[in-house]
Amino acid sequence: MTSSTPASALDAAALARYIDHTLLKPEATQADVAALIAEAVELGVYSVCVSPSMLPLTLPADADLKVAVVCGFPSGKHASAIKAAEAALAVAQGTDEVDMVIDIGAAKAGRFDLVEADISAVRAEIPAPLVLKVIIESAALTDDEIVGACRAAVAAGADFVKTSTGFHPAGGATVHAVRLMAHTVAGALGVKASGGVRSNADALAMIDAGATRLGVSGTRAVLSGAAVAAPANPAAY
């Protein structure tokens, strides 16, 4: 989609190519992941996003589907060496993309040098053309902290900045945060909106604000134009 094309002009097939079809519930089973993959292929999404213990995945031979995995999830309070090792294992097990969580406390303290170093440690284990997305937990940050975290991601060589884990009590993606993130990275990185994208209107609003990828669990409903019921945890996917 170009800047001159409104998100409202996207049909379901085009919108599907923005979506990381996501399953990160702690109680998820291998059978659940197999169902996720089957649904992802049916719906024509860009990727599936799963927990690292679910790797390696078995995809249909002809599937046009990427595999994404989370890292340092959901708190981000893992040592950088542990995040790097987790990313390296995911790469060895066939992931195409890694969605890492920053140390949110370091961002809150204004230590963006530490945020950059944390991201750099993971980036070192993810060779191009594999993709690194950086989850900044935007709902827990001020605007200045969002800007600082995004700049750290750019400096560390990430490919995307991402709003949310979907598990933080502060909430998930907002149009304001996506717009601010997109303005800050200015096209140098992609922007992924995740956490609370539960309707077609939500998805299109995020894309209009500058999102180039979406993390969605209720993908079928989002593509059909229906709304997904909010879970008990308002931030959850």
TrEMBL record:
InterPro entries: Aldolase_TIM, DeoC, DeoC/FbaB/LacD_aldolase, DeoC_typeI. SUPFAM superfamilies: Aldolase. It is found in: Cytoplasm. It comes from the Bacteria. Gene3D superfamilies: Aldolase class I (3.20.20.70). Pathway: Carbohydrate degradation; 2-deoxy-D-ribose 1-phosphate degradation; D-glyceraldehyde 3-phosphate and acetaldehyde from 2-deoxy-alpha-D-ribose 1-phosphate: step 2/2. It is an enzyme of class 4 (lyase). One of its GO terms (biological process) is 2-deoxyribose 1-phosphate catabolic process. It holds the Pfam family DeoC. Its EC number is 4.1.2.4. Keywords: Cytoplasm, Lyase, Schiff base. One of its GO terms (molecular function) is deoxyribose-phosphate aldolase activity. Its main location: cytoplasm. It catalyses: 2-deoxy-D-ribose 5-phosphate = D-glyceraldehyde 3-phosphate + acetaldehyde. PANTHER family: DEOXYRIBOSE-PHOSPHATE ALDOLASE. This is Deoxyribose-phosphate aldolase. It comes from Cryobacterium arcticum. The gene is deoC.
